[in-house]
């Protein structure tokens, strides 16, 4: 009998795409869950007979609610995860169910280890960050730096195409939660504070051309230095394809920097209104870049780059594919070590890469010699 996956936020921007992938590429049953039962039911109906709908509010969920679904794993794709509690994860663990989420919130991922003892006792796997960051970015870093003697710099960047960029309130609130606020970053060989969505820089994204990028607060800012010990810097940046949107948000951060507002999240609906009205501009091509510099297995200066290009509007599927790979690994027993931890060092890049096949997603990996003086990832600007 096929196993069942409970997808929280399964009618949303990312949860919906994860549900699509589960139905299209596996024999799992899928339960679409969320506070809005009408939306969940509509999504389930669109997916066909293997999908059902469930009304569920994660702010009031208890273990018994989850246990009655018969699912073997709970996937939280709802968000935003910034400053969120672990109520759903705790409930899943107490119900004896595996738990996976798509969290990209630095604080949420950093504190997730508090659930480790409970997950071990229950004999279940609980993974946070099974998304583009940190799961995919670290699978790439593991591959690029295999056998290296020293790592000097790490740069990770994401630039979605404007036409297909998710515009849900949870996505927008996640970005606005740190825009203009101090962000702790390892740069120039030391920890320092830089402005969230600050330091705009134009970067050549392979396959996309020049894109504007700004500093983002993600789990990678902690996990990359902790796992790879770069000597000089590790930075994560993202951008909005349209310059008017990218710099419009950058200009708005002045209100936070000047202490006129506690957070731009207060204006999430206004930003969403603007984004919706500009959705027909730009293109539907997005991408991701991971670049690392240091000294390879032979002790020679080296630079390695991995890039991804998603076309035809398939970019928003990318954040869901590491979670899909995790669900498969849990179902067939390849992933069975009980405990709660970030989803890094868990998936091999090949496992995620296989999930790209149904989509117009291509990747490229290259290595080259580098000067002994390796530049710090560019973070020029204010």
Globular, elongated, flat, extended or rod-shaped: what is the shape? globular
| Total of DSSP H or I helical runs spanning 4+ residues | 14
- Class based on secondary structure composition and strand pairing: alpha/beta
Q: Helix proportion of residues, in percent?
A: 25-40%
Distance between the termini: 57 Å
Average pLDDT taken over every residue: 94
Write down the secondary-structure element order: EHEHEHEHEHHEHEHEEEEHEHHHEEHEHE
Extended strand count: 16
Report the sheet with the most strands, covering strand number, pairing sense and barrel closure.
9 strands, mixed
Beta-strand portion reads: 25-35%
Poorly predicted runs of 5 or more residues: 372-376, 378-382
Radius of gyration: 20 Å
Describe the structure.
By secondary structure, this protein is an alpha/beta fold. Helix content is 31%, strand content 26%. The protein has helices at 15-25, 37-47, 63-67, 87-94, 106-110, 116-122, 132-144, 169-176, 220-228, 243-252, 254-257, 268-277, 321-331, 349-353; strands at residues 4-8, 29-34, 51-55, 73-76, 98-101, 125-128, 150-159, 182-187, 190-195, 201-205, 209-215, 233-238, 286-295, 301-310, 339-342, 361-369.
Care to give the gist of this entry?
This protein is α/β, with parallel strands linked by helices and 382 residues long. It has 14 helices and 16 strands.
